[in-house]
Write a structure and sequence with these properties.
Largest sheet: 3 strands, antiparallel
CATH superfamily: Nucleoid-associated protein YbaB-like domain
Distance between the termini: 29 Å
Helix content: 40-55%
Number of domains: 1
Mean pLDDT: 87
Structural class: alpha+beta
Strand content: 15-25%
Number of strands: 3
CATH class: Alpha Beta
CATH topology: Ybab, Chain: A
Order of helices and strands: HEEEH
Amino acid sequence: MKDFGAMMKQAQAMQAKLQEAQAKMAETTADGASGGGMVKLTLKGTGELTALTLDPQLLTPDDAEVLTDLIVAAHADAKKKLDAAQAELMRAAAGPLAGMPGMPF
């Protein structure tokens, strides 16, 4: 029964680490850019867009399609960075269990 008790303690410790990692993920931000920096934005760990900066040169009626494409590209850039940062936080929280079958990271 000692092994079971030890396993339960490890599971509780891992659960605490995962909760801590989730809290850190919510606080994490990632910046994305496109068009050589003409469009910049920031995403929170929850996916919320918190900042958007547009180069004034893009604010013409003729550039509307280009602007929308650049915003989408900047969002994709930030989302990729955010996903990588979150995956690293989860791997660090899982410790030696990371990558085991049934683990989401």
